[in-house]
Each structure stands twice: as structure tokens, then as C-alpha cells.
Write a structure and sequence with these properties.
Helices cover 23% and strands 33% of the residues. By secondary structure, the chain is an alpha+beta fold. Helix 2 runs parallel beside helix 4.
Length: 255
């Protein structure tokens, strides 16, 4: 599943990002133009170290940015490459010495099941900060926070935000019925949406991403339903004879 998603994402993202790359770096040999990107080990901003959180943040950041097709992720940090996350709290020289072009530094505070995450993107060659973002929420949202920062990292470098915080809606038969599920683009955080024990098909997101329309046989006829993802509220919007399918959203997403 992940290999398939990786292939699909590259097809979707790479053509759109390549022209915008010239905003940051002139490319004269596309086959050899991957930027060397390093992700420093996340460090505590306050409180105790949380090795599990640091590891998962690193994994998500590496996977997302590697998937963009723009970077080669450097496997290890250089000696002397640690320090804080803010400008002036660390030296760019050790990173320059190993050929790093772009550097990601993150700090976190984990307390009572909540996480504050601060991530910064640096141009190592120029010694400048490209963007900084700070997120706060439940510890369970740490992967989403990392995805959000990776979206912004691509925006800072190419002018076009990434799609790493997006979701995929799909149909699976794990329960023996065709139910609709939601997951992160990388296959994590699978959530079952429908639980009606019937046949549910063709989920489609609203322009806002807050709702889905889908076809369900739960009342025996293939009717069209609209569902709010956050609340789970559901309404039947078409129950004509025959198959109610392939709904189209108005551009404003309200109907």
C-alpha cells in the first residue's frame, strides 16, 4: 500500500513542483539536482527528552520530504551539528562540511499528553532561516503536526505547498462489508467512517475537505449521502430510483 501511495504522490506532486524550483535554485542538470537535506534530531525545548516522539517526528519529516522528489535525505547528523533550534543557537559550519543545502531543526515540549512542536527550515549555504512554524495539540496529533510543517517547507522552497497533511478516503472489506475509511496519505491513522454493515461506495471530498459524499445501500437502494467528517453527522441527499452516484460539488463547497 505504501509503495503504491508513494508512486501516486510522486506522479501528482513532482511535475507541479519542478518548474517552481527555479524560484529558489537554478537547475542546469535535472538528473543531478537533488538538494541535500538534513533533519537534525529533534530536541526538547523544555522538560524531559521523549525518544519515541523524537523518532516518530524524524521518520515523518524524512518520509514526506523524501517523497517530494526534490531532496536527498542525508542519513546522519555531523559531529558538532547539535545545539538549539533557533538562529544563533547552533553553527552551520558542521552542516556545510557534509554538503547540506537545506536543514530542518525541530524542538518539542511534551507534557500531560500534549505536545508543542517548533520546526525551522534553514538555507545552510546562505546561513538564513526560510520558515518557522509552531504547533500545539494532543500528543496523538504529532504526525499531523509534522505533515503540516512539511507542507510549509515545500511552500518555502518552491512556492507551492505540499500535500502531506491530506487524507485519503477509500473502501475496504475488512469487516466483510464494503465500508468507507479515512487515512493519512502515507497509510497511517486509519479511521473507519461508516459502520452500517452494507455496501458503501465512491467517497468524494468536499472542496473544504470537511465533508464526504458517498453512495450507500444501507436502505436497500443505492442512495447518495453527505457526511460531516468531524461530527459524523450524515444526511441522505438523493434517493431516486436507480443508482444515485457521482455527485459534483459546487465550487463554494456548500451544496
Amino acid at each position: 500500500m505504501k509503495k503504491l501511495l508513494a508512486s501516486l504522490l510522486l506522479v501528482a506532486l513532482f511535475p507541479a513542483l519542478l518548474p517552481a524550483q527555479e524560484k529558489y535554485l537554478e537547475v542546469t542538470a535535472p538528473g543531478n539536482s537533488l538538494l541535500q537535506l538534513a533533519i537534525a534530531p529533534p530536541v526538547p525545548l523544555s522538560g524531559k527528552e521523549n525518544a519515541e516522539t523524537a523518532r516518530e517526528l524524524t521518520d515523518v519529516l524524512s518520509f514526506d520530504l523524501g517523497m517530494s522528489g526534490l531532496f536527498r535525505i542525508q542519513p546522519t547528523a555531523p559531529t558538532g551539528g547539535t545545539g538549539g533550534v533557533k538562529p544563533g543557537e547552533f553553527s552551520f559550519e558542521p552542516w556545510k562540511a557534509i554538503g547540506t543545502d537545506i536543514l530542518v531543526k525541530c524542538g518539542y515540549s511534551a507534557d500531560a499528553g500534549r505536545l508543542t512542536l517548533e520546526c525551522r527550515l534553514f538555507d545552510v549555504i546562505r546561513g538564513s532561516e526560510l520558515t518557522v512554524k509552531r504547533y500545539s495539540g494532543p500528543m496523538s496529533e504529532r504526525r499531523h503536526m509534522a505533515h503540516l510543517f512539511d507542507d510549509e517547507a515545500l511552500r518555502a522552497i518552491t512556492g507551492t505547498a505540499g500535500a502531506f497533511s491530506g487524507k485519503i478516503a477509500f473502501v475496504a472489506t475488512t469487516t466483510g462489508n464494503k465500508e468507507i475509511y479515512l487515512m493519512d496519505y502515507d497509510g497511517a491513522n486509519v479511521l473507519r467512517l461508516t459502520k452500517n454493515g452494507s455496501i458503501n461506495l465512491n467517497p468524494d471530498f468536499s472542496p473544504s475537505g470537511r465533508e464526504l459524499v458517498f453512495t450507500s445501500y444501507k436502505k436497500r437502494n443505492p442512495d447518495l449521502y453527505r457526511r460531516d467528517i468531524a461530527s459524523g453527522a450524515e444526511a441522505r441527499i438523493s434517493s431516486r430510483r436507480g443508482i444515485n452516484i457521482t455527485a459534483a460539488w459546487a465550487p463554494d463547497g456548500n451544496r
